[in-house]
């Protein structure tokens, strides 16, 4: 019999909680470590649609990347959006475990999964941790240089489709060979990327002014902006593979394919 506690032990070996940022909230949100687990659903966001999916498949545990209760709370009444999810999970016999910035910094972690999806070879962390191996983001290489416009198409083809699509900022004909990637919101690392001198940087949630200021720097890397959810979704299969290796055929591990990106409509003219 595999328990919630058994799954948590495997997850915390792969994504040590000590790697999480001080402000983060990772770990078991709800669920009894002694309860049996036959099915696990892996997703980016613990939201109504993924909770529906988990309960429909009778999952004993939801593994999510994003925290449900990131900021301090004094209660989880069922009358609140997040409280209602907690109550539904408990009533349905499902636990919730969140691996956020600890999964970002682990090796392999979120950015390794993103790099692999894009066909890149990882050569090191973007912002190294104390051990020089873990850390946020990754520096990568393409097998062969390709024009920036082709690289942007590569990114769009590799990641799940979203309403907003993929945006590129830079000379379309610029050769791209070295690439920095950071799953999730990554404009706080623009300075680090510029100092490294890579050809392009792939991340999510880039804002107008930081991107404009970055572009004004001599030799600044071209930018590729993708949806936050899409940049982190490849991690789900990485985490699922870790659990499959640990529990074999004893636990059914499912990766959610529901698009939980909040943006649902885009228009251009």
From TrEMBL:
Gene Ontology CC? cytoplasm
Residue positions annotated to bind a divalent metal cation are 65-66, 104, 228, 232
Q: Which domain of life is it from?
A: Bacteria
InterPro entries on file:
DUF34/NIF3, DUF34/NIF3_sf
Keyword field = Metal-binding
Molecular function via GO: metal ion binding
What positions belong to coiled-coil segments? none
Q: How does it assemble?
A: Homohexamer.
Q: Which protein family is named in the record?
A: Belongs to the GTP cyclohydrolase I type 2/NIF3 family.
What's the protein here called? GTP cyclohydrolase 1 type 2 homolog
| Lineage summary | Bacteria, Bacillati, Actinomycetota, Actinomycetes, Pseudonocardiales
């Amino acid at each position: 019999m595999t328990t919630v506690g058994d799954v948590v032990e495997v997850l915390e070996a792969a994504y040590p909680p000590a790697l999480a940022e001080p402000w983060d909230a990772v770990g078991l949100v709800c669920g009894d470590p002694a309860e049996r687990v036959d099915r696990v659903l892996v997703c980016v966001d613990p939201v109504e649609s993924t909770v529906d999916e988990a309960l429909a498949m009778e999952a004993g545990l939801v593994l999510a990347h994003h925290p449900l209760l990131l900021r301090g709370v004094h209660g989880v009444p069922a009358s609140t959006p997040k409280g209602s999810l907690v109550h539904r999970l408990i009533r349905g016999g499902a636990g919730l475990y969140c691996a956020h910035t600890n999964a970002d910094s682990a090796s392999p972690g979120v950015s390794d999964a993103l790099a692999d999806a894009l066909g890149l070879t990882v050569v090191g962390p973007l912002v190294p941790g104390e051990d020089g191996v873990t850390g946020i983001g990754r520096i990568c290489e393409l097998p062969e240089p390709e024009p920036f416009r082709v690289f942007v198409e590569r990114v769009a083809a590799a990641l799940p489709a979203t309403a907003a699509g993929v945006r590129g900022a830079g000379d379309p004909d610029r050769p791209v060979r070295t690439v920095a990637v950071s799953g999730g919101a990554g404009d706080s690392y623009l300075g680090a990327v510029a100092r490294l001198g890579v050809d392009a940087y792939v991340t999510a949630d880039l804002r107008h002014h930081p991107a404009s200021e970055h572009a004004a720097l001599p030799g600044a890397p071209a930018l590729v902006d993708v949806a936050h959810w899409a940049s982190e979704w490849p991690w789900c299969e990485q985490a699922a593979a870790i659990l499959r290796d640990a529990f074999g055929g004893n636990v059914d591990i499912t990766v959610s394919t529901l698009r939980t990106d909040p943006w649902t409509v885009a228009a251009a003219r």
